[in-house]
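Make up an example, fold above all:
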Amino acid sequence: MALRLPKAELPAELRENMIKQLGAVPENVEVNWNSPRVTQDNLEFGGRVGAWDAVDAGLKSFAHMAVAAQVGCSWCLDVGYFQAIHQELDLAKASQVPRWRYADVFTPLERDVMAYAEAMTDTPLTVTDEQYADLLDRLGAAAMVELTAFVAYVNLATRANVANGVASQGFSAACEVPLATRPGSSDAAPAA
């Protein structure tokens, strides 16, 4: 996949912050900087979303990666797996998210959260009353609202990356366990 917009030059301070956080400047930020206001608002909102804490960080990470695998956002899979290291998640488990339905490493709750994330990503949505009620019962109202808003935000980010032609930058190369490929996908997940 090739970028559909040229990268814009970031202000030095933003560039340095990105390198400090990720070790490189994310191409999606450079592409989005063609509209600095959109980029700044998106970064601010993304930071706020990242600070929500009613749902376990691991569940949100797995939900994000499940959406990314379904949408085909190799950049999100790549950086999501890289971020799993910093969240101290089980990397062997995180590496299997693209093929979660076939991997036996996930708990029933993790599987249900990833199924919910995928159901929210389907067009039209395929979330069922039973699926929602089951997660609501297990997570509670505040966490269910957060999970739903989080998955909606992740859909915004993943779909924008794919539409803009942003692909994996190799962030996951620092990980110990290779990231699995989603079964039936012509797009390979980034290899570590």
